[in-house]
Automatic annotation (TrEMBL):
The lineage of its organism: Bacteria, Bacillati, Actinomycetota, Actinomycetes, Streptosporangiales. Belongs to the LysR transcriptional regulatory family. InterPro entries: HTH-type_LysR_regulators, LysR_HTH_N, LysR_subst-bd, WH-like_DNA-bd_sf, WH_DNA-bd_sf. PROSITE patterns: HTH_LYSR. Residues 1-58 form the HTH lysR-type domain. It comes from the Bacteria. Keywords: DNA-binding, Transcription, Transcription regulation. This is LysR family transcriptional regulator.
Amino acid sequence: MELRQLDYFVAVAEEANFTRAAERLHVAQPWVSAQIRQLEREFGQPLFDRSGRTVSLTEVGAAVLPYARAALSAVEGARRTVDEFAGLVRGRVAIGTSSSLASLIDLPELLTGFHLRHPAVEITLTEDTTDGMIERVRAGRLDLAVLGLGRTTPPDISLHTIAADALVVAVAHDDPFARRTSLTLQDIAERPLICLREGTGMRTTMNEAFAAARIKPHIAFEASDVNLLIQLTAKGLGVAVLPEPMVRKNAEILRAVPLDQPRLTGRLVLAWRSQEPATPAARALISHMRRALDTRPDALC
């Protein structure tokens, strides 16, 4: 029995199809079929029922599957241990971010720096909302996410705060609110509100604040790009709630008015799963990002 045969067996079991398993393994389908038949001959029992449209495990195959997975996991663990002793980091890492953070963090440069230090690690990048990334991290589909959060910390998630800023009301310079010294949620609920889309950290913070105050805002515009949100606000199409440094950065077109009752804060964070130990590659990525982002960004989204 060879380790690759167990690898093929697990792939076919999970894909319920020899062709898809071969594509996943980057080998020819006849080779996968031949290796599974050889494994079945060694066991003396069929592992798959091939009579239907999809391939299904036999009773014996279902009983063998946990042991095959455990064997593959043990071998991978041994390889990781050897790599750590040798000072090598290999494997894959998956990182998530949102398009609304693109203007705040130079992620390509950060990932290039990581690649130069760990060229044997394959990197994948996914864009999603804050809610989507949290679920992906919790499910183990992302090793690390860069996201915006309010005060609430999601369960089972470890965080490293990069920045925390007060949220203020952003208005055009000729807006009537520009002459005010402070505003409340009730004030901005009476005006068209320009927001990031549902599922983003700042939108969730706003939703929770309005719900706690039992106020229903008038959402006039939703944007996934924070730069579009800024331009819509500067044109006088409504008011927005943004991190104070972001409004200060765009002071030539926006004015910041403090938000009172309640005062809100937004955070830019790194997030990773806290329940299970990270792989060496994931630990290296988290460490690299924490070091690289110690310098406070200009704004938070």
